[in-house]
Amino acid sequence: MSQPPHGDAASAPASSSPSDPSEASGDAAATARLLPGGPVAERILAEVAERVAALIRRGVTPALATVLVGDDDASAGYIRIKQRQAAELGFASPHAHLPADATQADLHAVIESFNADPAVHGLLVQYPVPAHLDYDRALMAVDPDKDVDGMHPLNMGRLALGLPGPLPCTPAGIEELLAHHGIPVSGREVVILGRGATLGRPLAILLGQKRPTANAAVTVVHTGVPDWPRYTRRADILVAAAGVPGIIRPEHVKPGAVVIGGGVRYAGRRLLPDVDESCARVAGAITPRVGGVGPTTVAMLFRNAVAAAERATAAANGSGDPTVSG
Hints:
InterPro entries: Aminoacid_DH-like_N_sf (IPR046346), NAD(P)-bd_dom_sf (IPR036291), THF_DH/CycHdrlase (IPR000672), THF_DH/CycHdrlase_cat_dom (IPR020630), THF_DH/CycHdrlase_NAD-bd_dom (IPR020631). The protein has a domain at 21-36 and 167-295: NAD(P)-binding Rossmann-like Domain (Rossmann fold), CATH 3.40.50.720. The longest helix has 25 residues, at 293-317.
């Protein structure tokens, strides 16, 4: 499945080193530095392009299949973005477009067709699907080995157990973004506002795992907790993943904290982020309203896709470990 970052319902500070903005003083109005996702995505996609080229030299063209149901303009736009990126990287991109009145059986038939095609290595179904369709059932129908979103229950279980496998794209992109910008995570207090299956929950697992770019003390809080700001105000790193536009305001942020805007809603094509722009007056570092987490999410999608192609190739050749993650 594929969808933009969303939530439950998406220069360094003068008083700190560039890598540790959460140690900044309370007056961060002029010092909050932006944490763009573009440079992170460029680095990841350059690595992906090299891996794609290596596969092509072996006679394998990696293929990322997409499925769109209905005629939602925004969803069609997201598919076009992924297809353009796929072409730039050297992926084949077979596509199935079903009418808005397609049945669950119609959708599953297309999914099964891509599952059975050995030339297809990755598969995503664009979210949302029309209301009469069951998105979760469609997710369950995707071959876990071709699940480039990392959202199949089997792959979520592998994440929870610390086993190799495709990682959920937005959480993995956030970890990459923090590491790229030199934000220390290990031993820090990370608070995630939002407990959704695509962002809040998997990010909590990911950042709590033992490795240099994670190993944090993670708290997950949500809007069902009446005094949720009590938790967000103590965060060294605050991740907004509630999907409630403008829910995070300056009074909810510890001065000098790192603020990551992962939760969004859309009104047509208009982006409505969780983090109010005025939080830049308080934060030590913050993702921009546009071009923050989004580019890293797309980059991680293609990293998962090339890893799926590598696993399939290794399995077909009887060499290597087909479970190794990218």
